Amino acid sequence: MFKFVNREQEQHLVLFDGWAFDHRIFSTLDLPYNYIFFCGEPAADFENRLKQALAENRIDKISLLGWSQGAFAACDFAAGNPDMIEEIVLVSARKKYEKEGLDDIKNYLVRNRTAYLYKFYKDCFSQREKKSYQWFKESCLRRYLEEMSLGQLINGLDRLGEAEITPHFLKKIKHIKIIHGKADSIAPFDEAVKLSNSLPQSQLITFAEAGHLPFLQKNFKRRLYEC
User: Fold this and answer.
1) Which of 170, 181, 192, 193 is the most exposed place for a label (fewest CB within 10 A)?
2) Which of 100, 98, 52, 47 is closest to 74 using CA atoms?
3) pTM of model > 0.70
4) Residue 83: which domain range?
5) Tell me, what CATH number does 18's domain have?
6) Angle between the 150-162 and 99-111 helix axes, to the nearest 10 degrees?
7) Long-range pairs for 100-104 at CB < 8 Å and ≥24 separation?
8) Hey, which residues does 64 pair with through a beta bridge?
C-alpha cells in the first residue's frame, strides 16, 4: 500500500494523490524529502498500515502532502496523530464534495467511462497550462484511460462523498500550507479561501494560472518554501 523512495534526504513526505490519478502524477515533483507514496485504494486499516510502513523504515516524524481527494486522507491521519506531523500541505483541496454532483459523475462514467475521463483530465488543466497538459498526455493519459476501472472510480467517488475536512480536528497541527490554482475548475478557488479562513494557523499560497494540478508549475518548489 505504501512505497518508500529514499532520496537521501533527512525529512520524509507522505504523498496522497487524487481521484482517477495515482502516485505517478507526482513523478516530476522535486522536494527536499524522502518520499512515501500511497499506492492502491484506502482500506479499513489504512492508518495502522501507514504507521507500520513508517515503523519499518524507522520514521517517527513526517510531513504530509494531500492533493485533491488525497487531502482528506492527509487530514484524517494528521488529526489522529498530531505528534507525528511536521507539516501538512493541502493542494487543490475542498472541505467537502456534494453528493449530488458526485452522483452525476457516476452516471456519466456508466454511460461512457473513457469519454468522461478524457474530459475530466483535460478540465484539470487551465488554458495557460498547455505544456503541463502535453506532459500529462505523453506520460500518464493513455495508461490512466486503460487502467482506471469503472468499479475503482465509483468506489473512489463513494469515499469522496463521505469525506470532509473538519478544521477543529486539526487545531494541534501548527504548520499547514494550502496550495491552490486560481484557474481550478474542479475545486474552485473560493473553496481554498474558505478552508484557509477556517484554519487560522494556515498559509494560503496561490498560483494565478494553475488549474487543479499546481504542483506541476515550474515554480512550485520555490513558492512552497519562499515563506
Assistant:
1) 193
2) 47
3) yes
4) 2-97+164-225
5) 3.40.50.1820
6) 180
7) 102/157, 102/160, 102/161
8) 14, 88
Residue 152 has pLDDT above 90, yes or no: yes
DSSP string, the chain: -EEEE--S-SSEEEEE--TT--GGGGTT---SSEEEEE-S---TTHHHHHHHHHHHTT---EEEEEETTHHHHHHHHHHH-GGGEEEEEEES--S---HHHHHHHHHHHHH-HHHHHHHHHHHTS-TT-HHHHHHHIIIIIHHHHHH--HHHHHHHHHHHHH----GGGGTT---EEEEEETT-SSS-HHHHHHHHHH-TTEEEEEETT--S-GGGSTTHHHHHH--
Instruction: Answer yes or no: is pLDDT of 227 > 70.
Output: no
Q: Is 204 a member of any domain?
A: yes
Those residues whose C-beta lies under 8 Å from the C-beta of residue 42, and which sit 6 or more positions away, are 73, 159
Q: How far apart are CA 193 and CA 85, in angstroms?
A: 23
Q: Report yes or no on 83 lying in a domain.
A: yes
Chain segment 130-151, per-residue pLDDT in tens:
999 999 999 999 999 999 999 9
Whether residue 53 is contained in a domain is answered as yes
Name the grid cell of 120.
Answer: 475530466
Q: Structural domain tally of the chain?
A: 1
- pLDDT at position 161, please? 96
- Checking if the pLDDT of 165 tops 80, the result is yes
Contact call for residues 97 and 161 (beta carbons, < 8 A): yes
Mean pLDDT value of segment 20-33: 96
Grid cell of 29 as nine digits: 515533483
